[in-house]
């Protein structure tokens, strides 16, 4: 019997476990993989993410090894025109933009948890609920035959979430675009400024941002579907495809970054999202079961808000579930349902807004070559993008 079971040890799952620990509750985290997952190479974390990391008490562990960026440039591949984008000034760790290694973030979160919190190689096969002594109890069956009972289940199991399906949420939809991501490594240093560089072309958008003086995170978004499996197949073929075909007309600096990629970090996958009206109208919690992160609100990466919103979810869940803990340190089952309903009310519209803004940003950035689409892109990068990032200054609050 567990107080809380979290399905999935990604960013959302680990952060939620840390948040619950902060309020005095130990969760069991079930992860189907054999170790921590780090698909995606790196993450760009905006002020809302740093507010959440402050609440979790780990922001200083990341700011000590990664440097913030405060401006970037958007280059039109065809016309060579360059526009500057300002991301605002820093007022401490809660108001800055920093790109971090995804694996490092996962490890920092995992280090905050007690031993044996994460159970690897644990694949969920079914979820049931029953009433015991007037309270709803969740029953989880694992592939190895283990049966776990829990007062609360939080699905943080990604875009293809089994917990989301149990709640009745539909599968995410294909945006018609895909993303190639990687981490470039320069053993002797890359010598570039700490700036976010983007390059736009018809139906293509690419960019890179330094993590530190030796590592650079890069991405390439296009309408070409992945060639093989979900994550693109052979790393060498992904690298050649970008350099020799997809980005052959992009600036030499960008191609040099791609050429320095660590093969183990290269991925190619379809960009999926959940329709915002499914989040607004869908059943996000039932019988003391809910979802967080990509399991609730998968979105395109065009505003860099996937990880930030997952960290927000974790802090809000920790704060609200923490209010259901008795003086003896146990969850009051009757109160948990109310806490999850409050969580859904707080997160539903926020998530739907971020999904919509990200999708709109991606459409403006990549779609169409007509004169009016080019004009719209110019206006977007010059006047709208900075305001769009105002959503990234959201503060999810503190933990008790």
Structure, described:
The chain is α/β, with parallel strands linked by helices. The protein has a single domain, classed as FAD/NAD(P)-binding domain (3-Layer(bba) Sandwich). The protein has eleven helices and 17 strands. It has helices spanning 11-22, 47-56, 59-63, 102-111, 162-167, 235-246, 252-259, 276-281, 306-322, 333-366, 371-388, and strands at residues 2-7, 27-30, 42-45, 71-76, 82-86, 98-101, 118-119, 124-132, 135-142, 147-155, 173-185, 196-201, 204-210, 215-222, 267-273, 285-286, 289-291. Helix 1 (11-22) packs parallel to helix 4. Residues 90-94 have low confidence and may be disordered. Keywords: Monooxygenase, Oxidoreductase. GO terms for molecular function: FAD binding; monooxygenase activity.
């Amino acid at each position: 019997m567990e107080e809380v079971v979290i399905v999935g040890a990604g960013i959302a799952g680990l952060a939620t476990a840390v948040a619950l620990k902060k309020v005095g509750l130990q969760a069991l985290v079930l992860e189907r993989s054999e170790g921590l997952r780090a698909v995606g190479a790196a993450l760009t974390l905006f002020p809302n993410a740093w507010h959440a990391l402050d609440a979790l008490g780990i922001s200083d562990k990341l700011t000590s090894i990664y440097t913030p960026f405060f401006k970037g440039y958007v280059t039109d591949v065809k016309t060579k025109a360059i526009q500057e984008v300002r991301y605002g000034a820093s007022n401490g760790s809660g108001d800055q933009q920093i790109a971090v290694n995804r694996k490092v973030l996962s490890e920092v979160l995992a280090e905050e948890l007690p031993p044996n919190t994460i159970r690897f190689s644990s694949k969920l096969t079914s979820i049931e609920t029953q009433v015991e002594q007037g309270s709803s109890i969740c029953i989880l069956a694992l592939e190895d035959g283990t049966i776990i009972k829990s007062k609360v289940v939080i699905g943080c199991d990604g875009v293809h979430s089994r917990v989301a399906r149990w709640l009745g949420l539909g599968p995410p939809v294909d945006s018609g675009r895909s993303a190639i991501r990687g981490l470039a490594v320069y053993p002797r240093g890359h010598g570039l400024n700490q700036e976010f560089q983007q390059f736009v072309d018809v139906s293509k958008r690419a960019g890179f941002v330094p993590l530190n003086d030796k590592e650079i995170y890069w991405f390439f978004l296009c309408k070409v579907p992945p060639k093989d499996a979900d994550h693109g197949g052979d790393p060498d073929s992904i690298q050649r495809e970008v350099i020799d075909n997809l980005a052959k007309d992009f600036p030499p600096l960008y191609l040099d970054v791609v050429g320095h990629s660590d093969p183990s970090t290269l991925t190619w996958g379809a960009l999926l999202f959940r329709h915002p009206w499914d989040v607004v109208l869908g059943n996000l919690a039932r019988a003391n079961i809910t979802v967080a992160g990509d399991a609730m609100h998968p979105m395109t990466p065009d505003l860099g808000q996937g990880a930030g919103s997952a960290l927000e979810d974790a802090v809000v869940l920790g704060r609200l579930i923490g209010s259901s803990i008795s003086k003896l340190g146990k969850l009051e089952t009757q109160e948990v349902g109310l806490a999850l309903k409050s969580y859904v009310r707080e997160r539903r519209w926020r998530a739907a807004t971020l999904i919509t803004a990200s999708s709109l940003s991606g459409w403006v950035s990549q779609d169409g070559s007509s004169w009016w689409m080019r004009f719209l892109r110019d206006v977007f990068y010059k006047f709208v993008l900075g305001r769009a990032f105002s959503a990234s200054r959201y503060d999810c609050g503190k933990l008790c």
